[in-house]
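At this stage, I needed to go through a protein sequence along with its fold in token form, as given directly below:
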Amino acid sequence: MNRFAEIVRRDIRLALRQGSDSIMVVTFFVLTVVLFPFGIGPEANILERVAPGVLLVTALLASMLSLDRLFQADYEDGSLELLVLTPTPLEVVVAAKVTAHWLTTGLPLLAAAPVLAVLLNLNSDGFSTLMLTMLIGTPVLSLIGAIGAALVLGARRGGVLLSLLILPLYVPVLIFSVGAIDAAIQGLPTKAYLLILGGMLVATLPLAPWAASAALRQALE
């Protein structure tokens, strides 16, 4: 656990020192959502209807922007090879890097979501469900994204390939998140949607670090 915490602190310090990834993610999220009222019109009813989908699709795309740098920087400067050679299991290293990635990208998206929800006239009944689905869903996106980032490590045009690999895996998170928010707005139970999202998180927590670490070992051979 000490080694896990050290890697998390290291990656957070590097992210804050550079700052570009977190700023880019939040800026993309904000600007893209802000453009939708200009594109579809200012009608409150239309904005209210599309708000859950717009917010979650945009958050999904924004979370992908920094995934290709999840392991790439350490791969280029040789730090990744040193991390592999340490006694710490590589799965723990991957889990720590995913945690740092979520704290520097997913958490800012979570903080910006309520303000943008007001802009899109999201029904007040859906606010708490929006925050809950993003709180559960964004770690799943980071975990799945880590697998894709490890698979394309060192590949040419890895960013494009990464998108093709992980977008289909992101679709279930999007479907059940939007379904939960729509159900909350209509006064219907949301428990089933949230349980499925929680199941995805529980499944990816052990599986994603294992799969990503296997891909990293293959890339370093």
Remarks:
- Residues 2-220 form one domain.
- The chain has one domain: 2-220.
